[in-house]
Amino acid sequence: MPVTVFIRYQLDPFKRSQFEEYAKRWLTIIPKCGGDLIGYFMPHEGTNNIAFALITFESLAAYEAYRARLRQDAEGMANFHFAEENKFILAEERTFLRKVVL
Fold this sequence. Notes:
With 102 residues, the protein is of the alpha+beta class. It contains three helices and four strands; from the N terminus they run E-H-E-E-H-H-E.
């Protein structure tokens, strides 16, 4: 069963440009590692410290395989370190969703 990972980020609102740089890097890394990236979504109007990402996988097992590949990917690890060093992500929540079908 396909699963979509919904990631909610709480950002430092004064570091949104760093988060955008971080998100842009994932646009090539995630597909390379096996995720079907729907997209990253930045604050535009209203709340200025919340961003989202949506990534779909064939199954929860495919997600786990993706996570293992990501930990071996030099660009992916560099992006994780970029986020840790710059502390623009204050909190991150992951929700695993399935599509409602008839």
